[in-house]
Each structure stands twice: as structure tokens, then as C-alpha cells.
């Protein structure tokens, strides 16, 4: 991406920002007792769209995931229906429920059932309340509009505390193009797929195969670099619909338009990745781990993710404790570094920056200044490997009392 | 091990239980401000002993580890000196400090410096206070006796809350043999080496190479199956001294004596592994994860360790929440199971047992009974893979507020 000058800007509107997309939501009581939280949403393109997706690598895949993978096989889709409050996974009726959800949605919004992508998030092992889903689909499909992106972002939240909704605008082939996205995910998100659910819409014209390539490329350095805990969900889903209404010349190969599109998509995903990490369950801080001057890109990524995922580093960041020894220790057990004798570590935030370790040995440093830096809400751990020129960023958060509290009684 | 009938019993005395071992401890102020906690210990065999060790796989190795590896090369040693309060790792003088510690100890107890094994545990990156170490070695070496095993177990503790000290007795070749061990470790302990420090003594006569084999074999199913957090220390050390004073026929091959010796050693390590896991930082419960009927031993181990290490499973156990979906999810992302369609899950404790998942689908179960079972202090998660006949146990603990509290301000 290094040669492409970014030519995009962030705009309002989320998934309904691009031409030809509408959305609707409902509060239908999928989780017993829920009478106020939005728990179902539908996102629809006016016409058929090229589509691609990336899914959990967990061997246990929820019915929605297998359904969506199957419906994406022909490279087109028109609609996404998602529910929160129940993952519809590991229960006897999950596949039936996912099929019925797609059919109900298809009938309600007038599209082919094979063009409906399904997603679910919530507790595993409980049967999905199809009466609620039916009611929700009726309600949401009756409320489709250009105004509902933000409500969609709310409808897919579980333990999330902030909505994740962004959009970018760029020019391709002289035409104005928009890309919008919403996402949810704050626990059970890890490096295999940095989010539980993320839905992306664009009015750009992009051929299905290259759309998948773009999605993978943008996710690789963003969503796939988010780590909150070590767990990988059964339901992780990232899908994109590209309806082509911007009327740019269709992107079919890795030309300049492709590069600009991917640059904008990557920036969009990075924004979401940071928001996801910062909103990690119980988190009080965004921790960006940057590895510089690594031998290979793989090394940079592996070290960044290992440090960002270390429970001890995360706990120290929560306590604003400049315990860099744990960072070096994590570099050591990452399995990516043969030589750990020449590693520098530095902390950086809005309060300034401080070097704490040089050539793998502790530096005398001002503990008070370090604490001040680590008390900010966005912290960067910068690791210099002095062994090449590759860089990577991982997006994580601190480990707090609240993470434990939230996850000690998730089902209740 | 299946064919060997265990012929051992647990006895008192820890590392000084075997013939010819004495120990001494000191409180020498290695951690600034510490005036009451024991922080140095010496364990000595009257004569030279055959010796073997297993060490951290972290690429960052503390000076004590490299020193001990070097001194074990000839397969003999006579003495162990260990300090808590400072890991003597990642500082400019670490190697000098480890060398000097070995020399001071050798002179004080009258052994060859090459026969001294050194171990350190505590904070990384700070220079070891050699004045304190000098004082401590003088003090400890003047107090060598058969009574000090328990104090040694205390002297190596950091955030541990209970001492880990056990001994077993068995008959080999008509002779009574004892094996004693102490250990410490409650954070930063993971599957690569289930403890930060463990010292084992025996009066059995065992040749150096087969002693190493026995140590590896016993550790494989015990220490290496302990997981508290995902971190691996720079200082992990497990060493054994076998001085042969029991006068059994020296074990040089995998005969019945070897099998009996390994069975006793494994039982000793299992006892310690359970204690280590239960005393995991902030833990309120021991969680034993048992995988039955796995296809291969490797699969059983990998699944057991993945489930035991899942932050979400650990948090649920803390909250006594029978959230078995997270267990199935962890089985799925373990990377060890291709087929996850026929997995049973059951919880067991002193309160009884309850099946919660059959053929990977949720069972209706009595939530109240499940909660009661999960409120006990020792819980077993039993996973049946229905795909073979292999079993493994992993030893872990719950994830609690206190883990975060302890690790948010470890250095202060």
C-alpha cells in the first residue's frame, strides 16, 4: 500500500451512506425479558450486489455462518439479516432456524432467499426464538430507510458499550464512491477474525473475486490484528456488498482504482479495529502495540499480537505500571524472535513518550512520567527489533476487573 | 504407565526428606523494603548427585537459567541456591550476578562452583542487589538442617499464597527411597513449563541420562499441563538432584525400577501441579479439564490445555456460570479437533456431576444444581470426544478480579 496516496475522507451515514442501501431494525425480544434493546436488523441493497465474506476459523461454526458461506458461493447477495441475543449455535434446530430466518427475510423485503446473508451473535447453545425473529423481521422490513445505520449498529451489540459505525468517501474513475460499515464485538474476539460481526456496504462496482481479495487485504492489517482475549467465536462474520450504483468502471484487477479502494477500505477497518479494541469487554484503554524494524512482516505481526494478547501486559496497562519486562518476556515467547538481545521498548500517549528499555536492558526512567503516560486512554507500546524494516500494529486493550465481572455471569 | 501398580506413599519432609539433603534459608532484603519475607534458600546434598533439568522455552532466558543449564552439562550437581524478589533478567549485570551467586554459595557450603545450580524469580529488568545476596548466602549456609524444607518453599514464593512442598516414599530394589519437591509459581506459568521454579531431591541412585528422561516423562503430564495465564516466564526452572544414598541398584535403563520411580515422581508432580493451578494468581478454584476418548494423546492434551486456558471459560467458572458453549467453542478453536459434532460436556465436583451438552447440542439441565456444582473449590470439566481412547488432564484455575488486581501493580 506504500505507494498509494490516500484519497478518501470520512463521512456520515454508516452502511446506508452508499447509494442504494437501506436498513431497518426491530426490538423483538430474542433474549427472554428484553423489551427495550434493538436485537434485529436488516440491511438491503436496492438491486443485487457483488458480495464476499470472511468467517471464523473455529471448527465449531454457527448455522448462520454456514448458511452465509453457502449463499455467498455465487458471489452475489442483496440483503443481510442479523440478530443479537442468541448465537443460534450448538442447538438442535440451528440450521432450520437459519434457513427460516433467510426465507422470512427474503419474503419480507422481496429478494431471493439465496441472496440473504444471515448473522447471529449472543449466547451459544440456546434455541433461537423463531416467533421473536418472525416478529422482528416484519417490524424491521416495514421500517427500511436511509436513516437507520446507527440503529443497525446498536441492534447487533451484545456487551459492546459503543456503536461502531463509520463511512468513507473516495473518487474512483471520476465517480464518487462511498463505503460504509458497522461492527460489533468486544469479547471473544481474537486474531483469527478480529470481530464477531461486521457488515460493509459500498456503491462501488467491484467484481466478486477481486472484492474478496480486497476484503482479505484490508482485514489482514486491521480486524485480524485486534485481540481482546484469546478466544475465537463460532459466529465471526465479515461481509461486504458492492452494488455498483456509483457507476465507476468495474474493478476487475489490481489497478490504481483497486489500490485506492483498498486504501479507503483499510482506513475504514482500522477505525473500526481501534474502536473494537478500545471497547473490549471491561476495557478502560486502547493499547496499540507497534513493532518496528522487524525482520519480516510475519515476525512484526506475530510479536505485536503476542504482546497485545499477554494477560500480564494487559493487566500492567490497566494499572498504569511501566512493567516493560513483561513486554520483553512476551516478545521472547512469541516464537517469532530468535534474537532478543537488541530490543528497545518505549511507551507513548497524549502525555508524551518515554523509553524504558534499550538493547533489551532496563533504562533508568522517570516512573512518575511513565505512570502519567500510561494513565491516558490511548496508549502505544513501541517495540524496535533492530533487525529489518517491517512494521505491524496490533490493537488491544487492558485487562480489568470488569472483564471478569462481565464474563463471570454472561448468561444471567 | 498403565501397567505399573503405584507402590508409593506420600510422606512429610519435602526436599529434605531423602537421605543426605539439608537446606537453609534467609531473609536478606533482595526486594527493597522487605524485612520479613524469606527470600533466599540453599538446598544441598551431602555428596555429589546426578542431576537433570528442564527450562523455559522463552527466547529471553534469565542469567540463572543459562548458568544452571551450563552447570548441568556434566550431569552432576550438589547444591541449589535460589532467590525470590528479583528475576535477575534483562539487566546489564545479570550474568555477573549469577556467576557471583554460584561462587559465593560454593564457598559458603564447600562445594565446587560448577556444582551449584542457580535460580531466581521476581521482577524482570532490575539489577540484583548483591550485597543482599551475599548476606543471605552467609545466613542460609550457616543454618543448613533437615528441618528447613518448608522454609525453602516459603523463600521462593512471590505472589504465591500457599507453600508447595510434598514428598513420596517408595521401594526400589528392596531399598527405601524418597523423592521430595518444592515449587513456586502462580502467575506467568503456562504450558511450556508449568511452574517458574521447582526443585526436586531424591536419594535414589539414577544415572544422569535416564534421570532426565524420567523428569521429562513426569513433567509432561503434570507441570506441562498447568495453565494459569498465557504467559511463559524467562526463569522457569525444574531441576532434580539424585544422590544415590538409598543404595538401590542404580537405574540406567527403563526397567521396572524406572517405571516405579517415574510413577512416584509423576504422582508427586501431579500433587504440585494441582496446588500450583489452585494457587494461580487471584484464583478461587482449581479447574481440572479432562478430555476423554480423544483420537490421539496429542489431541487430548491440546484440547484440555485450550479449554483450561480460555479466558472466557475461566471467567465463567469464577462466576459459577455453566456456560458450556464457551467450552465447545474452545474445543473448536483448539486446532486439534476436525470433527466437533459429537462432543459431550459434563461438570463434576464434590457436589455431584451434571451433563450439560450431548453430541454438541445443549441439554436441558437443572441450572440450580449446575451452579451448586460450580460453586465448589475444585471443579472438573469433563469433555468426551467419542473419537478414540486417549485421555488427558489440564490443571487451571478461574480468572478473577484479584488476578487483575495483583498484576495491575506487581512492581509496586
Overview in brief:
Helices cover about 30% and strands about 30% of the residues of chain A. With about 400 residues, the first copy, chain A, is α+β, with helices and mostly antiparallel strands. In chain A, helix 2 packs parallel to helix 3 and helix 5 (about 210-220) packs across helix 6.
Your description of this structure?
The structure is a homodimer of 412-residue chains. Chain A has helices spanning 63-71, 94-109, 130-141, 149-155, 208-220, 256-278, 297-309, 311-318, 324-333, 367-374, 401-408, and strands spanning 8-11, 21-26, 40-55, 76-86, 116-123, 164-172, 175-184, 197-202, 237-242, 286-294, 344-349, 352-358, 361-362, 378-384, 390-397. The mean pLDDT of chain A is 92. In chain A, strands 1, 2, 3, 4, 5, 6, 7, 8 and 9 form a nine-stranded mixed sheet that branches. Chain A has two domains: 8-277, L-amino peptidase D-ALA esterase/amidase (4-Layer Sandwich); 286-408, ArgJ beta chain, C-terminal domain (Ubiquitin-like (UB roll)). The radius of gyration of chain A is 22 Å and the shape is globular. Chain A is of the alpha+beta class and 412 residues long. At the A-B interface, α8, α9, β13 and α11 of A face α8, α9, β13 and α11 of B.
Secondary-structure blueprint:
The structure is a homodimer of 412-residue chains.
Chain A: E1 8-11, E2 21-26, E3 40-55, H1 63-71, E4 76-86, H2 94-109, E5 116-123, H3 130-141, H4 149-155, E6 164-172, E7 175-184, E8 197-202, H5 208-220, E9 237-242, H6 256-278, E10 286-294, H7 297-309, H8 311-318, H9 324-333, E11 344-349, E12 352-358, E13 361-362, H10 367-374, E14 378-384, E15 390-397, H11 401-408
Parallel strand pairs in A: 4-5, 8-9, 10-14
Antiparallel strand pairs in A: 1-6, 2-3, 3-4, 3-9, 6-7, 7-8, 10-15, 11-12, 11-14, 12-13
Helix pairs in contact in A: 2-3, 5-6, 7-9
